[in-house]
Write a structure and sequence with these properties.
- The complex is a heterodimer of chains A (261) and B (257).
- By secondary structure, chain A is α/β, with parallel strands linked by helices.
- Chain A has a domain of 69 residues.
- In chain A, strand 1 and strand 2 form a beta hairpin.
- In chain A, helix 3 crosses helix 4.
- Chain B has 257 residues and is mainly α.
- The chains are: A alpha/beta (261), B mainly alpha (257).
- At the A-B interface, helix 1, helix 2 and helix 3 of A face helix 1 and helix 5 of B.
Chain lengths: 261, 257
């Protein structure tokens, strides 16, 4: 790391948040997908971002990772601006996008090695890292196969491995357990807990409320492009009257506004 | 954690771009040689005897540099358009967009990857010309310059189309309605002197005319226009298209939402 880089979650109060967004607005034509969001995710947190489909979760993640441009406002990663200092912010993030996005051209091992290369890893280092991840995710036997030969669960594991190839301090998981069976889900939970315990920040979006409750100590609920609740898991659950699903049920929303007010 | 990442990221993408076309020789490297050989057969042996020599060169030798250029342009253009379009269409362009590669590095790697394909195909065609027609290169430096600058130019043009295209159909549009007519009307098969003055003027608006003329000067020592002007047009066009490519990547045109 260069001398001017900020500390990565060293526990000192002075370290900047892993992710911070301020007055973040994203418009698609007339539609406001994000309506002035403020959010701060401390380094080292296991943070859950919840909300119904189309609430703005992926838009927020895409702006932080570089897949979308903000209309106004700002976003930073460990103190670096995601637009002006994109090379620094991107180096620090691993993203597992909701949709699979594999370069079908390669075997799965080469896919990981090339991905490491894009992040500036020397080939030898990328190879040994890829081998370790393939073993960890039970993909070793398949390492010479093309993507099309993998099952859905294997693709999901590969997607997570790809996000981790450069060992980033921040892992962003966009609906990572959609369509994943119970056994694999538990395994992924264990993996993320290990990463988090080792000091990495994890930002998770999920439809599975149970998953958020089990994993995340801090939550934010987003709907219609605004944060409608955020804070510690217990506080956010309490504001929903003990049941997170209240945030998602349309007929309950009028009541929710009262909670917010 | 080094911040610049050195050249490793750029070299990885360049390696991918080259590897992609190397392992698909029947789509990328061999067909242009086959088509050039067919042109040589038809224009050299079947029709060529009916066409008088141009500037002292037999007709097939006169058009040969144009055949080389046609392969260079098509190869470079096809490489960047298809590679970028597929990467966007199948979303794995995101792997680059979330990486610390700079936009300049991305464009440079794509452009060079396409240019290398064009240059390889061009050199192979030249070799074939030497083997079949005995064409020797008149001026090596000039020949290489026009091969390289043309390959870079149409690879850069392919970047733009590869970003713009929303469907496969769009990838074909520029090839069929822009590149191919420009090549055929770019002096591949004729000398400017064969045309009436008004058409000569129209030809001078076609940038491929200048690259074909430049390459013809390099290979045969014959030309309709000054090689310096050809070099200027070629370099200028490349610079414009390259800068546009970088600007589009920077803006995230059809890359970021």
């Amino acid at each position: 790391m260069s001398p001017d880089a900020p500390a990565l979650g060293d526990g000192s109060g002075a370290s900047p948040p892993a992710v911070a967004v301020s007055s973040l607005v994203k418009r698609y034509g007339q539609v406001e997908a994000l309506r002035g969001i403020d959010l701060s995710i401390p380094a080292g947190a296991f943070f859950g971002l919840l909300g119904p489909n189309g609430a703005g979760k992926s838009t927020l993640i895409n702006i932080v990772t570089g897949l979308a441009s903000p209309s106004s406002g700002s976003a930073s990663v460990l103190g670096y601006d995601v637009v002006r200092e994109y090379r620094r912010t991107r180096r620090r993030i691993g993203l597992s996008p909701q949709e699979f996005n594999f370069d079908r051209f390669f075997s799965i091992q080469d896919l990981l090695i090339y991905q490491g290369g894009y992040f500036g890893m020397p080939r030898r280092e990328a190879r040994s890292r890829a081998e370790a991840l393939l073993s960890r995710f039970g993909l070793w036997e398949k390492r010479h196969e093309k993507i099309t030969r993998l099952s859905g669960g294997m693709k999901r594991r590969l997607q997570i491995a790809k996000a981790m190839i450069h060992d980033p301090p921040i892992l962003i998981l966009d609906e990572p357990t959609a369509g994943v069976d119970v056994e694999l889900r538990r395994d992924l939970w264990d993996y993320w807990r290990e990463l988090n315990a080792a000091g990495r920040t994890i930002l998770l979006t999920t439809h599975y409320l149970e998953e958020a409750l089990v994993l995340c100590e801090t939550l934010a609920v987003i709907d219609l492009g605004s944060i409608i609740a955020s804070g510690s898991r217990d506080a956010v659950v309490e504001r929903a009257g003990g049941d997170l699903s209240h945030y998602f049920l349309k007929e309950r929303r009028p009541g929710l506004v009262e909670v917010r007010g | 954690m080094s911040e610049g990442g050195g050249a490793a990221g750029f070299l990885t993408l360049l390696r991918r771009e080259v590897y992609r076309f190397i392992v698909l020789p029947n789509q990328t490297l061999v067909p242009p040689l086959v088509s050039a050989a067919l042109y040589v057969l038809i224009f050299g042996y079947a029709l060529g005897s009916q066409i008088k020599s141009v500037d002292g060169a037999s007709y097939i030798v006169y058009i040969f540099p144009g055949l080389v250029m046609m392969n260079v342009v098509n190869g470079a253009y096809a490489n960047t358009t298809t590679s970028l379009f597929i990467a966007r269409h199948e979303l794995f362009i995101q792997d680059l967009l979330v990486s610390p590669l700079s936009y300049l590095e991305m464009v440079l790697a794509y452009t060079l990857g396409g240019a290398i394909r064009g240059i390889l195909v061009g050199l192979a065609t030249l070799l074939m010309g030497y083997a079949i027609l005995g064409v020797r290169i008149h001026h090596l430096g000039s020949t290489l310059f026009f091969l390289v600058i043309s390959a870079l130019t149409y690879a850069a043009f392919g970047n733009i189309v590869g970003l713009w295209a929303e469907r496969w159909d769009h990838v074909a549009i520029y090839l069929n309605y822009v590149i191919t007519p420009m090549v055929f009307l770019g002096g591949v098969f004729y000398s400017l002197k064969m045309l009436p003055p008004s058409w000569q003027a129209v030809n001078r608006l076609n940038p491929i005319f200048f690259t074909v003329s430049g390459l013809r000067h390099g290979i045969l020592g014959l030309t309709d226009v000054s090689p310096a002007l050809c070099a200027l047009v070629g370099t200028g066009l490349f610079a414009i298209l390259f800068v546009i490519s970088v600007a589009l990547f920077q803006r995230g045109y059809n890359l970021r939402t």
